[in-house]
Amino acid sequence: MRAAKADFWSGLALGGLGGFIIVQASRWEYLGADGPGPGFFPLWYGIAMAALSLALVFFSVTKPGSERINWDGAGRAFTTWLALAVSVALLKVLGFLVCFAALTFFIVAVMYRRPLWVAAAVAIGATAAFYLVFPFALGVKLP
Amino acid sequence: MQGFAVALQPMNLLWCFVGVVLGTVVGVMPGLGPPATIAMLLPLTFLMNPASAIIMLAGIYYGAKYGGSTTSILLNVPGESASVATCFDGYQMARNGRAGAALGIAAIASFIAGTVGVIGIMLVAPPLARMALAFSSPEYFALMALGLAMVVLLAGRSMVKALLATLVGLWLAGIGTDLFSQTSRFTFGRMELLSGIDFVVVAIGVFAIGEVLANMEGREAAKALPVPKGWRNLLPTLQDLKDSRFAFLNGSVVGFLIGVLPGAGSTIASFISYGLEKAVSRRPEQFGKGVVEGVAAPEGANNAETGGALIPMLTLGIPGSSTTAVLLAALVLWGFKPGPLFIPENPALFWGLVASMYIGNLMLLVLNMPLVPLFAQVLRTPAYILYPVILGIAMVGVYSTSGSLFDVWLLAGFGLLGYLMRKLDYPSAPLILGLVLGGAMERALRQSLMMSDGHVSILVSRPVSAVMLSLALLILLMPVFGKINRWRLQALEK
């Protein structure tokens, strides 16, 4: 994907956010008897965001450079993020220690293609270390 | 001398040592901040002599500032908000195989700035405290605007993208209940968002998780970062010290002066100091790529702020941060009355504390320098072990701050945002700057306009705020001046 195209789409997304902020802020009081209301500050940064986003979109169309964004390997990053999200979703059900061990096992075995015994050893060792350092030694509550 | 007589008593020396060691550990652990640690230890101090107790608690406070740089440099995980600016160049130095030098310079900068802070307390505590009282909302707004203008210096290749990232930070800072009108803003009906988004969640998500995701792109990364080789890279060189001499001074002075202002905090001190260092540097283009001054300045500011922050707490009874609020509570619980009469009524306690801070800073330097090569060995950990551990530390750090699983979700979300910002070339530092300053800036602006019945002229009619706003404007216009100068030179050549 060309950088200009990415700028175009990210500019549109931020423009949308700017618009949303303006709409929300206009529903709140701008100036009251006591001074500026809750809508005062958001309205101004919303307007600034919308204007700058438009500028970004404009520049991406009028001055499209030849630079490309390298998305090679992004799939691996997104897969890791998905694994993290799944482990966060399961935190309430399984607790941190099980989820963290599973996440570690996944990263070592699937993402880095290490032997299963290495993945298991790393998962168990890291989880035990977390337990010993945080709840046991420091009294910090785990999720 | 009276202070040293108190601080050098064997028991006080021991408690000072315990405090700085505990503080260093607390600083290294993300999420386990000094306020929580001091609050947890408070009941134990009732059995202690008040001088020993305050010496130990203050040791935790400034010891944590030392420790906070370690995870920022090695893992890109800021242990606290004030360590974010250290990530910019500290982590890049680690990537360049100079983690040891970065850790060493952080320790030296912390020592120098901590010492300057202590000397500052000794010399100018009462007059500075009175001056800080003259700071009202317009001056605070101008200070925040000056801090926000630093975005110009933190911008990457695109100023528009940097400004957009700052505005997103301002928006994130605005999420939650408006304290003036009790209106809930941008909470999407979620109870968890009523109290706003914790800075730690965003900083750890964008920096640490974003970094892990970016590094996961490569399949065969045997080592996460290059391990420093040889003594030259394990400790700062003479050239590093020479390059950092202005940064030491800059960090010390900026950090101390901002620390004196209640509520300004070490985060803004570290950002302003970093921005100032970049502005006057002969190699500004190298900032963000791993320059030693980029570590020395924010680390110095972060530590000098500790000394400054104690001034309004002790002499006016005004805490400037959550840590000084807990320290103030401790003093009140022990039966003291922090305020204008605190120093004349308790000279032994005050000067004992000041002298112990000097000794404590020396202890920290002696303790930390030999540990630098040891900490640098963390980089020997293979990527497939290090990255899951960073993800785990991030989750525990965020959860331990708020006890909310929703914040862990937010952490994952901000991690993805951090990764996408990298890919799309949006700088993340301006987002953090906007988030840190947004709330205080809005508060100061609204209070100023209330004071003046809505007249904006109040911001420029007061000399201090006028000067600071002019400086902010100058900084914001710097890229424009640069462009005009380039056009002029091109025209002259033609």
Description:
- The complex is a heterodimer of chains A (143) and B (494).
- Chain A has two domains: 3-62; 74-138, no CATH class.
- Chain A has six helices and two strands.
- Chain A has helices spanning 3-27, 40-62, 74-89, 91-94, 96-111, 116-138; strands spanning 31-32, 35-36.
- Chain A has a two-stranded antiparallel ribbon.
- Chain B is mainly α and 494 residues long.
- Chain B has 23 helices and two strands.
- Chain B has a two-stranded antiparallel ribbon with strand order 1-2.
- The radius of gyration of chain B is 22 Å and the shape is globular.
- At the A-B interface, helix 1, strand 1, strand 2, helix 2 and helix 3 of A face helix 9, helix 10, helix 19, helix 20 and helix 21 of B.
Summary of the model, kept short:
The complex is a heterodimer of chains A (143) and B (494). Chain A has 143 residues and is mainly alpha-helical. In chain A, 75% of the residues lie in helices and 3% in strands.
Structural class of chain B: mainly alpha
Q: Looking at the structure, what is the overall shape of chain A? A: flat
Number of continuous helical runs of chain A: 6
> In percent, how helical is the residue content of chain A?
over 70%
Computed structural class of chain A: mainly alpha
Order of helical and strand elements of chain B: HHHHHHHHHEEHHHHHHHHHHHHHH
Tell me about the biggest sheet of chain A?
2 strands, antiparallel
Strand order of the largest sheet of chain B: 1-2
State which percent range the strand residues of chain A make up.
under 5%
Average of per-residue pLDDT values of chain A: 90
List SSEs of chain A in N-to-C order.
Answer: HEEHHHHH
